[in-house]
Amino acid sequence: MEESINRYIRESFGIEEQDIKTYSPLVLAYIGDSVYDLIVRSAVVDRENNKPDTLHKYCCGIVNAGAQARFIESIEEHLTKEEADVFRRGRNAKSSSVAKNASVSDYRKATGFEALIGYLYMTDRFDRIIELLKIGKVFEDKEER
Description:
By secondary structure, the protein is mostly helical. The protein has helices spanning 5-13, 25-48, 52-63, 65-75, 81-92, 104-122, 126-135. Helix 2 crosses helix 6 (104-122).
């Protein structure tokens, strides 16, 4: 990828790049949640071209905390040390929000996963996000959803 989405946004709006180490894991999870959702929605729309309600139900089966927890478990061995550290920091971060439809364990793993996605996005590693999603075969178990 020649130019990252995040870099393009920063340049377009004149925003200076910040030191990634200054971001809390929960802030990384905040942006990571949106980035992951956008990737999933984009791929599903391009693959399915269906009714919005059908698309929404399918996407919810991929982006919920339980699915994210299972996904991170399936790719954890493929993470670099740096990525594993970001995941751990996100998983262990104290959040004021609570899991609505997931166990505390799944919710924390999902937060760690979202922090990892946010970290990779903010460090212009969109290519690595896609690589991890391919390794984990995020779209290949449609019938199970």
